[in-house]
Amino acid sequence: MKIFYMGLESYQARYTYQLTDWTERAYKKRGIDYVIVPGTQIDDSEAIVTGQVLDAHGRSYFSMSQMMNLVKMLKAGEITNKDIIFFEDMFQPGMESLPYILMQTPKKYQPQIYLRCLAQAIDPDDFVHVWGMSKWMSLYEQMCNEIPNVNILATNEEMVAHMRIANWSAPIYNISGLSFGKEEVQERCPDRKPFIERKQRVVFGARWDQEKQPQFFMDLAQKFREKHPDVEFAICSGGSLRSNNQYYVDEAKHLAKKGIITIHENLQKNDYYKILADSRVLFNCALQDWVSNTVSEADALGTNVLYPAYRSFPETFANDHTRMYVPWSMEDAISKLELLLSKPSPSMGQISDWTNGTIDRMIDIMTGTGEQWRRDGRHYRTPVSESKY
User: Fold this and answer.
1) Whether residue 294 is found in the same domain as residue 366
2) What backbone phi and psi angles, to 5 degrees, belong to 65?
3) Most distant CA atoms of the chain, gap in Å
C-alpha cells in the first residue's frame, strides 16, 4: 500500500509552508510508503494576492498541474486498488477528472480516495458565501461525494453534523484537529521566554476578514486598555494588512495611529513565532474557524490562548472554560483575558500535543485501524460531547 499525497502549495504566511514537512515526518516515523505528487507554483512569490485563504490563481495553477501528474500515474498503472490518494484539501481544481477516469477504469486500478474537508459551502460563514460562490461550490461538493471509493475527513464533530445535514453519503471520519508538527514549530523558535518574562501583549493572528470578527478585537483593545493601559494589542499579518472588508483595515490603521493597537505586517513564519513566543495571550473571536492552526502554534510556544466557546472550540479545548469566553460577551472576554495575562494555563501544551497526533489519526483511518473516528449511522452525534484527550 502506498499513499499518494496531494499536498498544498506553499505560502510563507500560511501553515501550508510547513504542511508537507509535517506530513513527511509523520509518514517516515510510521514507516509509510508514500509518493509526493508534485505540482508547479504559479510564481516564486509564495504570497496570497487574490483571494483570502489561499491565492485564487496560485491554488488553481498548482492544483491543476498536480492533477495532470496524478492522471499520468493513473494512466501508467502506478496506482492500484491497494493504494490511497489523499487530498489535503477537498477543493482541488481539476478534481472532476478523477471520477471521470475512475468510473471507466477496472476496479483493480481504483484506489481508496480520502478528501480532507476544511469548510466550503456546508459552512454558512465560509468565504464562499461572502463572495457568492456557494451555489457552484455545493455542486462541486456533490460531485466529490460521488467519487468511487471516496472517504471524507472532517476536522471536528460540528463539521460532521454540517455534512450530514447536507446529505453527504460518503463515509465521514472526524480526525479531530488540523495537521500540526509541534517539534518543527518549536525548532523554529528555540528561544522561548518564560511566561513571567514575556511582554504584556495580546496577539491577533487570524486573517483580518469579516468572518474573523476583527471589530470585536478592536473593541476589546479599546475597552481593556481603559483599565490596563500598559497591555499591548497586536495584529500580526503575513503580508500587508488586508481584508474582505476595507473598513476593518482602515479602522485598524486609525487605532494604530492612536497607539491603541500595533500592526505587524509582512511577517515570515519565524518572525511571527518570535512575537508569539514573547507574548502572553493569543486571542481569537472568529465566527468561522473549524480548528485553528494558530491555537496549536501558540500552545506549542508557551502562549496562553483565549477563544470563543463556539463551533469546534469546545471540542478543541476539551471544554476548558478558563480558556474560552461566552461568544460576543465583552465582559466575559475581559475577565478571562485578565486571568490569562497573569499566569500560564495549567493545561498549556495539551492542545498542541493532541493536534500533533492528527496526521497519525489520519494514517490510522487510511490503514484501517481508525474506525473509532467514523461518524455514520443514526448515532453519529453520540461522541460529540466526549473529551478527545
Assistant:
1) no
2) -65, -35
3) 70
Q: What is the pLDDT of residue 76?
A: 97
State the residue range of the domain holding 231: 187-352
What is the CB-side half-sphere exposure of residue 256 using CA atoms within 13 A? Answer: 14
pLDDT tens figures, 243-302: 989 999 999 999 999 999 999 999 989 999 999 999 999 999 987 677 688 999 999 999
Considering the domain architecture, whether residues 211 and 95 belong to the same structural domain is answered as: no
Number of domains within the chain: 2
Q: Which parts of the chain are beta strand (E)?
A: 3-6, 34-36, 84-87, 112-116, 150-154, 172-174, 201-204, 232-236, 262-264, 281-283, 304-308, 324-325
177 torsion bin: left (phi>0), alpha (psi -120 to 50), beta (else): left
Residue 323's domain is classified under what CATH number?
3.40.50.2000
Together in a domain, 134 and 153: yes
Q: Are residues 292 and 240 in the same domain?
A: yes
The torsion angles phi and psi of 234, rounded to 5 degrees, stand at: -120, 135
Confidence of residue 383 (pLDDT cuts 50, 70, 90): confident
Residue 113 Ramachandran class (φ > 0 left, ψ -120 to 50 alpha, else beta): beta
Name, in order, each residue with C-beta under 8 angstroms of 337's C-beta and a sequence gap of 6 or more: 202, 220, 224, 281, 283, 306
Q: What is the CATH number of the domain that holds 58?
A: 3.40.50
What's the chain's length in residues? Answer: 389
With cell 453519529, the residue in question is 380
- 163 shares its domain with 224: no
Q: What's the rounded Cα separation, in Å, for the pair 361 and 156?
A: 13
Torsions phi, psi of 178, nearest 5? -100, 155
Q: Are residues 220 and 301 in the same domain?
A: yes
Number of helices and strands in the chain (H, E): 15, 12
Whole-number Å distance between alpha carbons of 97 and 4: 16
Cell numbers given for 18: 510547513
Q: Are residues 272 and 298 in the same domain?
A: yes
- Same-domain pairing of 240 and 281: yes
Residue pLDDT, tens place only, 290-348: 768 899 999 999 999 999 998 888 888 988 999 999 999 999 999 999 999 999 999 99
pLDDT of residue 288: 66
